[in-house]
Design brief:
The chain has 332 residues and is α/β, with parallel strands linked by helices. The protein has one domain: Ureohydrolase domain (Arginase, Chain A). Strands 1, 2, 3, 4, 5, 6, 7, 8, 9 and 10 form a ten-stranded mixed β-sheet that branches. Helix 3 crosses helix 12, helix 6 runs parallel beside helix 7 and helix 11 packs parallel to helix 12. The N and C termini lie far apart (38 Å). One of its GO terms (biological process) is L-histidine metabolic process. Belongs to the arginase family.
Length: 332
């Protein structure tokens, strides 16, 4: 396994980001971290991906490499209580592809570099899943859905399904790897089984891609169908898609550009609320046959200078909501 660009978390990292306060116990004071013992019983393993390569390969604005550090400082300061304790969670470390990013100048180079990211990410995901863990992947572009699905599929020896809360289907043409085509590549290489998307924005998904999705039997509901036409309720369609994918291991994808006014390369003024995104994470943790959780496309700072002080806290909420749901798991 090539972990050239991976760094395990150390005690120094944890202490640096954990604020100790008398009378309180933070997750950072209790959580296990770094190299994961092969016989560890930890159910959830959190890792970061610091890269903006897939975004640039899709003609987007870089910044997704900044999400992991924003998340880490907020997550480690979550209160350790009977509602959420650290005994089932392990913080592994992070991939950092900034040097690879800096070596790229053209679209073609970014797309070639995305394949190099794929080749490092999928073996680690495969290894974690084979050992019985549920990976939670934070940061980076949506390009990483492909190696995550590949790793899970190889571990389970069968294609994996996926439910995606997203404004964009990311099912673009097979034109070289980038953040706009992880699911089309995964489908083409038979790592992806059923693909279900909630919240597509009708203004920003092309007819040619929708036609390709129809051929691949991808199902989706648009944001407009839920909120303008009121053809179906948010909870209703989520339950429907969870039921449809219940016979397979299912990846839980959450692209933060689906949340209104959330800093990302494709941020917008309309979309799901942060509360709805939290409900999605919790409900999928509780009811779906979840193989992993992938939170992507968020940025604490974009290359154009835009910044957000709340991204880390939002990511932390989404992780803890998913974990709480999974630990309270029931069947529909």
């Amino acid at each position: 396994m090539d972990l050239t660009n991976f760094a395990y978390l150390t005690e120094e990292h944890i202490k640096t980001h954990t604020a100790i306060r008398a009378g309180e116990t933070k997750i950072g004071q209790k959580i296990s971290f770094g190299v994961l013992d092969q016989v560890s019983s930890k159910q959830f393993v959190i890792l970061g991906i610091e890269e903006s390569i897939g975004v640039k390969g899709n003609l987007g604005v870089a910044g997704t490499h900044t999400a992991w550090k924003g998340f880490l400082s907020k997550f480690l300061n979550v209160q350790h209580t009977h509602k959420l304790n650290a005994e089932q969670i392990h913080l592994l470390g992070t991939f950092n592809f900034n040097s690879l990013f800096e070596s790229c100048k053209t679209i073609a180079e970014y797309r070639t570099a995305t394949e190099k990211v794929d080749d490092q990410v999928y073996p680690l995901i495969q290894d974690l899943v084979e050992k019985g863990h549920v990976p939670i992947i934070i940061g980076g572009s949506h390009a990483n859905a492909f190696p995550i699905l590949k790793g899970c599929s190889l571990a389970f020896n069968e294609p994996v399904s996926a439910i995606n809360l997203d404004a964009h289907a990311d099912f673009r043409a097979l034109e070289g790897r980038h953040s706009g085509n992880p699911f089309s590549y995964a489908y083409n290489q038979q790592y992806l089984n059923q693909y279900r998307i909630i919240g597509l924005h009708e203004n920003y998904n092309s007819q040619s891609m929708l036609d390709h999705m129809d051929e691949a039997r991808v199902e989706f509901i648009s944001w407009e169908d839920i909120y303008l036409r009121k053809a179906v309720g948010f909870n209703e369609i989520l339950d429907q898609y969870i039921q449809q994918t219940s016979q397979n291991h299912c990846g839980i994808e959450l692209d933060l550009d689906s949340i209104e006014n959330t800093l990302s390369s494709a941020m917008g003024p309309s979309g799901f609320t942060a509360t709805e995104a939290r409900q999605y994470a919790y409900h999928c943790g509780q009811h779906a046959n979840a193989a992993y959780l992938h939170l992507c496309e968020a940025s604490t700072q974009l290359e154009n200078g835009q910044q957000s002080a709340t991204i880390g806290k939002l990511l932390s909420y989404l992780v803890t909501d998913f974990v709480k749901g999974a630990l309270e798991k029931t069947n529909i």
